[in-house]
Structures are given as C-alpha cells and as structure tokens.
Amino acid sequence: MYVKSTWGIGAGVYPLCPFLKQKKKKGDVFILKLKSKYNLTTFVFLLPWIITFIIFSVYPIIFSFGISFTDYTGLSPEINFVGLKNYFSLFKDEIFLKAMRNTFIFVIGTIPFTTVISILLAVLINSKMVRFKGLFKAGFFLPSVMSMVVISTIWRYIYSADGILNYLLQTIGIEKNTGWLASPDTALLSIMIMNVWAAIGYYTIIFLAGLQSIPEELYESASIDGASNTDKFFKITLPLIKPTLFFVIAINTIRSFQIFTEIFTMTGGGPLNSTQTIVHYLYLTGFRQFRMGYASAMAYILVIIILIITLIQQRVLRSEY
Amino acid sequence: MSKKILLLVLFVGLTLLSFGKTKISVWQFMMDDTLSKQVKAQFEAANPDIELEIVQLSWATGFDRIVTSIAAGSAPDVIELGNTWLATFASQGVLRPVDDIVGKVKDDYVAWNFVEYQEKTWGFPWLLAPRAMYYNLELLDKAGLDPDNPPKTWVELLNASAKIDALGPDIYGVGLCVGELYSPYQEWFLPAVWGNMGHFVSPDLKKATLNSDPVIETANYYRSLSNFALLGKESELAEAFGQGKLGFFFAGPAYINNTQRDYPETIFDVTLIPKPRDHHGYHASFAGGEVLGISSQCENVEEAWRVIEFLLSEEVAMQITRTTGEVFPTKIGIEKDPWFESHPLHATFLEQNKYAVPFPPLAEANKIEQLFTNIVEEILLTDAPIEEILQKYNQQIQNLL
C-alpha cells in the first residue's frame, strides 16, 4: 500500500506509478522499485511532467534543505554556512514556539469536529429520510470549490468589530467593541470554527463515497436480527468506513499543519501572535524579515513533525488491516 | 514578388528596430492598467529608443514578487517600494545608490528623508501618503461638540471621544487599529510618540529609547483612549466610520473617495492629527509614501533614470493623484495645482504632510515594524503595565539595532 507522505510529494510521485512495482518485504511493508522494462512511449509522454516535477518540487526541496544551514537572506548574494544554528535558534524563538503551540491547538481542535460532523452529515444524506440528496451534497461541497481567500474574506465580515456576529450578540445584550479576530482570546478559535465549516463539505463527500460502498444486505440482515439504528452505525457503518476515516484524518492532519491562507488573509498571525502558525511564521520570516535560511529550517521542522505523525498514522493503519 | 520583398524588408526593419531599443521594466503598485498604458504610450512617444514595460503589482503579493525576482537574479530595472522598506533593501545591496544622479532633481522634490540610508541616497521620493484625522460632523454635533472646531489636543480628543462614545452602544468615540501588521503603529501610536517629542531610537540610531518618558506618556494616553474606542483592522474601522458609527479615525487619504462613494449620507471632514498639548509637541503624522529605486541588477542606468524622471514629473504623478486620490506628488509647489482647490479634504492631507515623519532608516525596519504592531496590541488589548511592555520591547529593539 502506498501512502502519500505529503500533499505535494504524494501527488507528485503518483504519476510515476507505471514505472514502479511494489514488492513485499517482511510482513506487510511494501517498497517501490523501478521496473527494469518500461514503456518508452509512456515515459516520453510523462517527460514534461517529470521535468516540471524535478524543477519545481525536487530542486526546491533539496535547495531549501541546503540553505537551512546558511544565513541566506534571499536578497543578498552573500551566503554563509552556519551549521545547525538556525535549528537550535528556533527552539529559543518565542514566536516560533507559540506558532507551534497554536498549530497543534488548531490541529487538535479542528480535526475531531470536522471528522465527526462530516460523518454525521454523510450518514444523514445517505439515509432514506433525506430527499433532494443532490442539493445537500452540492450545498455542503460548495465551500470546497470556493477559494479560501473568498471564504476568509466573507468570514472577516462576520467576525469584524461591527459585523454580523457582534450585531447578533448586541441584540441579546452582549456588547463587544473588538472584532473577534482582533482579540487574542477569540482570534484562533474564530479561525478554527471557520475552518471546520469550510472543510466539512469535502470530507462529507468522501465519507458519502465510503458509505455507498457498504452492501445494503448487511443492513437488511441486521434489521432482521433486530439491530437498532445505533447498533447498525457502530457495528456496521463505522467499521466498514474505517479506511475512509483514516484517509480523512491523515489528509486533514497534513492540511491542518500547513494552515496558511486563512491566517494570511484574516489575521496576519496577530493579534499578539495569537494566530501565528508554523507556515505563516515561516512566510513572515522568509519574505518579510529576509531570513530564508531560518525559514527553511522551520520548514524542515514541520516536515519532521508531519513525517512523525504520518508514520504513527501509518502504523495504526497497519495494525488495523 | 515585389510584395514579398517589401514584406521581408519591413520584417527585417522592424526586427532591427526592436533590437535597437533598450527595454526598461518598471514594477509598481500605484498605476492601474489603463493609466500604465497611457504612461507607457506617452513615454515611448517622447523616448523612441526605449521600450517601457510597466508591471502592476498588488499590495497582497507584490512584495513577495519583488523579493522572489531579486533572489532569482531577474529584478526589474526600476522598483517602486514603500518608504519603510527602503533601508532594508538598501542594506541588502538590492538597490543602486543614486547620489550621482540625484543632484539633477534634488531641488525640485520633497521627502528626500524617505530615501536616505547611511548617508547615501538610494532612490527618488515619488508619492506621498501622510495620515490625518477623519471626523464625523454629525456625531460631533449630536455629542454637543462644535463640528467646526474638531479636537486639536490629546485632552480635547479624549473628551470628545468620551462624549461621542456615550451616544449609544453601537457608536464609538474613536477607531484604533489592531489585528494586522503595520496599521496599528502607523495609525496612530508611533506618530503620537513623535508628536510628544519622543523617539523609539536615539538620533544616531544605535540606542533604543522606547522606555523614555515621552513614549510612556503616549502609551498611557493611548490606553486611556481605548476606553472609548472601536478596535479593529483599518478596513473595518473605515467601514464603521462610513456607517456613521465612529467619531474619529486616523488614516491616509485613500478613504476620502471610498467613503464619499460608498456612504454618501455620512458627512465628514479631515483635520490635522491632535498634538499633545497647546504648548507642547506637534501634529505629527506618519509619512507614508512610495519611492522609486534602481535595481542593482539594472544594466541600463541612464535609461532607467529617464524613466524615473518621467514618472516623477508633475504630469504623471498628478495623473496618479487624480485617478486614485490616495497619494500626492512629491513635486515642490504641488499644492498650487487647481485639483486641490476642488478637493479640499485632500488639500488638508497636503497640509498635514508638513508634520509627517518617516520611519527611521534602519536595516532591520521590517522586524521592528512587526514588533511595533505587538507593542500597540499589548497596550490596547492587555492589562500589562505600560512600563513593563515598553521595557520588554525596548530590549528586543535594542537587539536588532
């Protein structure tokens, strides 16, 4: 089984599959090997993609790893080797530590909600109770096809100091002279809520696909045996959509660790770094403070974090199947 | 046959002609596509040996594009930069010093302090965008204040804000920026420090002085003002001001046209930023502005200068003013242009520009700007003691000097 390690690399390696063969090695672990004979025509057709992939993915990955050991600014041609200084400095950098903390809060605070709500919505849409399924599917999926910049801009209006949310609160006697994104106590939470809203549609559709692959006979025989709807959900639905569930959690984890657009558009990491996340701080450090070496080191810390979590998830996957 | 020969000659001729031209690329933010085309046509008509390429950058991604192009070794010949970015770019060797050229126009333009860094000149001041105080005439009237006499001192502003704030739950005395980079300190904390005769760094730019008395006094005043303030991003405050919910609001000239267009029912005016006391300090404002620099990667400096000279001209700069209403030419005597007679609010901004102060030319300006945003947010959004906040950030600024 091939599991994508990150969005970019995973998606990038996928087209190479025709040239790869999977070989079993001790237990269930698979390794990928180049086929000795491959179709030259296919290779020629894939060549433009391979060249693009090498230039725009492989080269930057190697280059950024190299500059993470330097004081490269991006502006000045002068580059000095600084060894592991950037990596050590990161763990003394209060803002980076805060960004790490915020990122973990974001990941832990959004994934369970996104997953549970998506499953429930998918089950609801899949049930016989609901009519106009297509309408609901399209409605829930709509935020997924909208640009995150557009979504963030709309939610900025909802959260603004004189926005809809404060207006509603005012009608029940709660006054607030600060926008929800302008207060360090509520800014991150506000973005998390928006993110859950924006993400559930996409995952609902994935769960729906998983649900539709469950044979109807299982439910029929469970009904004959007198199983309740709750029993059917926990004993049939949930076990059978576990592969989908793990896929959703894995993808959502990676996406959440890489959260950037929402922060960039809505708060710029503020106020008081309360919404600063690893990728946004990486961007600020690289492109606003011109510390490309330092920012690259940050990127590799993120790679390590995502790698560890992906490996843990892979292990869980392996133990289950 | 003769047609074919004619076409061939024409083709070869045009090709040679295009090869004979020097191409100068300009990356800029202020001119939209229509204006860029006009300017290009006007320039190329007057300078047939130069092909001008004008690229418009967006404020959201333009900075990143500039940085990326420099890193890739493909920087444009002429770059428009915000004046606060100049020292950082100059310190990195991205810009070419222009002391050898600047003498030709030094007496014709103002704001040369935008482009000076370590006793060298690194560009040309192009456009001015000082900040002033917007005020809602109707709210002043409702609060029993004289709309013809807006606050001129800090105490007057505090009292007026308190009275306006008391008008209703969704009416606020003043708007103060938080929750984004830059605007919290530019509008208006740092200019207030300058107006109170304070500085966050010593004149030789070597010692942080954020814990000095004028800064502490300003920070205390700012916190007291927050009791009657709506806190939010600049765009949110501008919207609230347009909706008639804000008494006072500090910003650049960009909101004059927008507010008049989107909220025609709101009657407002613009005045000088209040000074600390009648006989102390001055009406300091943040001197925002745009400068034109020549990239150190530029190989045709003489041609680049001709382009800059054209862009600096009153004709082009006033076209930008008329189109955007957001910035003004740096040309000396521009206030005499008839456009300002018919645009009195914009004329007030020109008056305010006499008291405008730019950010000190520090190589680490970008990092310090980000710290300043945090300083203002800590003052306005936390209860931490003022001295403690300023002491903490004073140390951080000192580390960057």
UniProtKB/TrEMBL annotation, chain B:
The entry's keywords: Cell membrane, Lipoprotein, Membrane, Palmitate, Signal
InterPro entries hit by this protein: Bact_solute-bd_prot1 (IPR050490), SBP (IPR006059)
Keyword flag Membrane: yes
Residue ranges crossing the lipid bilayer per the database entry: none
Entry keyword annotation includes Ribosomal protein: no
Pfam families reported for this sequence: SBP_bac_1
Lineage: superkingdom: Bacteria
Protein name as catalogued: ABC transporter substrate-binding protein
Taxonomic source organism: Petrotoga halophila DSM 16923
Lineage of producing organism: Bacteria, Thermotogati, Thermotogota, Thermotogae, Petrotogales
